[in-house]
Write a structure and sequence with these properties.
The protein is an alpha/beta fold. Helix content is 45%, strand content 17%. The protein has an 11-stranded mixed beta sheet, sandwiched between helices. Strand 7, helix 7 and strand 8 (204-209) form a beta-alpha-beta unit. It is an enzyme of class 2 (transferase).
Amino acid sequence: MRIAVDAMGGDAAPAEIVKGAVAAARYYTDHEMILVGDQDRIHSELSACGATPGNVSVVHASQVVSMNESATVAVRKKIDSSITKSVKLVAEKAADAVVSAGNTGATVAASSLFLGTLEHVKRPGIAVSIPTFHGACMVIDAGANIQCKPAHLMQYGVMASVFCKYVLNIENPRVGLLNIGEEDAKGNELVKETFALLSKTSLNFVGNAEGRDVFDGKFDIVVCEGFVGNVLLKFAEGLSISMLAAFVSEAKKGVLTRLGSWLCKPVRKHLYSRMDYTEYGGVPLLGIDGISIISHGRSDSKTIQNAIREAIQFGKYEVNKHINSELEKANSSLVTVV
């Protein structure tokens, strides 16, 4: 596969992005890494990485979309940005996948505009694997579509199930619908209608999920509309960061707490590794006619390398082909969406 990597996207770009792409190129020698961005800065970072692998190439892009720019405006006006150019390489069949740690909205907008959606997909969705002590729980949608209809949410469940089966190795993923209670009668009209649709599918739909259920191991997938999903994701991220900071702060307050922290170091390292988002690399934008992996803005080289791994797995297991096939089977339970 040929992976277009947005070298200018992310807080640590281009240094960490280039470093991660080079590491991936050295490990995945049968695949090509195409670094897209300011060629002078990219070549400078490549020099710092030592000998450049033969499967790394550079495509110049003169513009950069910053994190605080309007996504649609940036895609329309910055036609030579590293994000837009990376996606266009996929659209033009010069690359097979795109990986970006840049502006998420711009990546979603560019991917949707230039790649379009799969035949049976009504709206693409961002599928985020949230690490928990019981393994990962995939939340979809995490911000691609904030005005959802029941058919969109039902399709999210189908697409995430396909991804979990073929990429995450979960044979029959348990699907839940995010709601304010477990009872069928709870929730607004969107949730109630979605519950009815999901119940008609062949998915392993196990009912409503409350917010705490994301972390308790009851579900492999939790479906929700993008506004709620993004709030849930940012809340979980902020809480975990605050908890870790509080632990470190408390551990420094006295001799006994320092000693206790030192004694617990092996356990702490094990827990950190289980909760480390960098291991997941990035999140797929499911439903587009291509492969688009979105990484965290704070991505380091390890995260980028793992995001590239995910893009390769996505292609290897033909996830899009299986999504189309499963959605075609589920057509009878879809509602018409204008």
